[in-house]
Structures are given as structure tokens and as C-alpha cells.
Amino acid sequence: MYAYSQAIAALGLEAAGFWALMGLGGDLRALAAFLLAHAGASALAALVLVASLPGPTRRQPGWASAFYFVMCFFIPVLGVPGLLATALVGRVFPKRGAKEVFSTAAAPEFAPHDDRAAPAESPHAHGPVRAQLTDPASPVETRMRALLTIQDLPSRVANPIIRNMLADPSDDVRLVAYGILDSREKRINARIQAARAHLEGDDPNSRLPAEKELAELYWELVYQGLVQGDLQKHAAAQSRAHFDAALKLAPEDAALWALGGRLANFAGQYERAWHAFTRAMEFGMPEVRALPYLAEVAFRMRRFDRVRQMLERIAQTSHTQRMAQVIDYWNANGRAAG
After folding, report:
1. Which residues contact 250 (CB under 8 A, 6 or more apart)?
2. What Cα–Cα distance (Å) separates residue 187 from each residue in 108, 217, 226, 329?
């Protein structure tokens, strides 16, 4: 009722302004009286219009009021009655029965382990091990055994967990965690030095293998999480430089194109990554290995139509249990959205 009273008052002020403008002969006093009444009517109309907005859209009432005031004030004849009429129509004839196009799908919960890892019943399964490592109440001996056990997992999975142990309150645990990561990084760096020696040699036939190996080794530093911050950026840049050099020597090498796709995906260059993985498939990379990468790149590009196409093709091939969970999630999400 209060909004209706404000709307009637706004219309009354607007009418009074026009009456003053017409009744006083159109001189400056008449114009001033009209503008004053019109401004008051615009302010009241703005309050009514803001109050008529749906709840979720009424987040900045100050800016909305200013917008409606300007709209009403600078349209002197139709502004106030026209906008109030739209608010009245919206209140009397609200939109009903709108079909929900989108629905909310719960995020899938996947076990954070590599498919090559040991089964859950094995003592090397890292679910309980991770719990032991992250529990500060666990005895130091228990955390030490868990830390040594987790080395059997693939480096990509184990290294982030081991790196978290560098902040463990126990000096022994921190030293063992640092030693594991340091030894893994040193092994890769030793291979990098050996590859560089071949690269700087006089044999032209060794240049391509050396460039490929250096690109892969620098990428392993990034992929395994052995370098962070500026060192990570440096390793990625070195991998990219050696990849470019190797690609000039072997432009039809599928493994090189696949590595280029992973580098581009890491750098956020998704169009470039899509092109690289597509080229890798053209030059012989098995489809069953390339399609998951293409699906990931398409997702990062927000090209969900491509994601569905890739997953449909993956579903027709031999795939892992984890990939089956991804396919089921997207299929369920597609049915809900449809």
C-alpha cells in the first residue's frame, strides 16, 4: 500500500507541475515550479520502481534509485507515468511457471590417486597414509613410516603430499621429506646435465634426442611439483624452448606435439593446446590417450559442447574407472540440464 501511495503522490506532483507550467503563462516562475514538482515526482517514482524490483536484483538500491530518477526526470511527459505503468504491470501480471533451464549438479568426488597406484586394501594405498601424515596427533614414528611408504606412489601424486610435510612440527619428518624431494630433483637435474652434454657435442644426429629429452625433463620438474614459484616458471620456459627446437627438427613427432599441448595447457594457452593435441593425434598419438587431454582443454576453454563430444568418443573406447566417473557425471548433468 505504501508503494501505491507513493505512486499516486508522484503522479499528483507531475500533474501539478504541468498545471503550474500551463497556468502561469510559461514564464521562468512557471518553469521553475514545473521542474521542482517534476523532480519530486521523479524521486517518488524512483523509490516505487526500486521497491518493485525482484529481491536478487535489488543489491544496489542507491544506484538503482539514481538511474530511475534520471530516466523519469529527463523524460518529462512519459517518464513518470510510463515507468510507473511498467512497475504496475509487473506487479499485477508477474511471470509464472518459468521453466528452469539450468540445474545445480553436485561436484563429483573422485579419489585423488593415480590409476596405477596400489588398491585400497594394500598397505601402500595413500588414503590412510595421507590421514596419518596430516594428523598432528599421530606419533612421529607413525608419520615417518607413512612418509616412507608414500614414496611408492607415482611422483606426481606423492610429491605434493611430501612437500606439505616440510611444515611438519617434527624436525625428523621435515628432514626426511626434504631429502626425498631433493633426491628426486637431483636425479632429474643430473639427467638434464647429461642431455646438455649431448646437445653441445659435435654429433648432429644427437641433437634431436637431446632437445626432446631436455624438453621432457624440464617438464617433469614442473609436472612432478619439484619446483615452485620462479623456478617453476624457469623450468616451463626451458621446456618450451627445447620443445620448439626439437619440433623444428621433427615436425611430425606425435610425442613432441603431445608435450607441446601439455605445456600450452599449463601456460593457459588453450587454443594452442587444442591444436597441439589435435596434431599429435594426426601424427599417431592413440586416440584413447589424446581425448582426455582434449576434453580437459575444452573444459578450460568453456567449450562444453566439445567436452561432451570428447567424452562421447571416450565412452566408446577402453577407459579407466576414474574416466567412467567423469563420463557418468557429465551424462547426469546433461540430463538434469535438459
Report:
1. 208, 212, 256
2. 36, 10, 11, 39
* Residues 157, 126 contacting (CB under 8 angstroms): yes
In this prediction, residue 108 carries a pLDDT of 58
How far apart are the C-alpha atoms of 20 and 33, rounded to whole Å? 6
More confident residue, 151 or 248: 248
**Cell numbers representing residue 248 in the block:** 623444428
C-alpha closest to that of 77 among 18, 36, 24, 23: 18
DSSP state of 124: T
Grid cell of 126 as nine digits: 595413500
What is the distance between the alpha carbons of residues 130 and 248, in angstroms, rounded to a whole number?
Answer: 44
Phi, psi of 171 (to 5 degrees): -60, -40
Q: 121 and 44 in contact (C-beta within 8 Å)?
A: no
Cβ–Cβ under 8 Å, residues 223 and 192: no
Helices 229-249/254-266 angle, 10° precision: 150
Mean pLDDT check: name the lowest of 79-83, 185-189, 295-299. 79-83
Which class for 301: exposed (0-12), middle (13-18), buried (19 or more C-beta within 10 A)? middle
Q: Which three cell numbers stand for residue 328?
A: 557418468
DSSP-derived secondary structure for 146-196:
HHHHGGGS-HHHHHHHHHHGGG-S-HHHHHHHHHHHHHHHHHHHHHHHHHH
Are 300 and 265 within 8 A, CB to CB? Answer: yes
Q: What is the DSSP letter of 96?
A: -
Q: At what angle do helices 207-223 and 229-249 cross, to 10 degrees?
A: 150
Radius of gyration of the CA atoms of the chain, in A: 33
Backbone angles phi, psi at 63, to 5 degrees: -65, -40
Q: Which of 281, 307, 312 is nearest to 296 (CA)?
A: 307
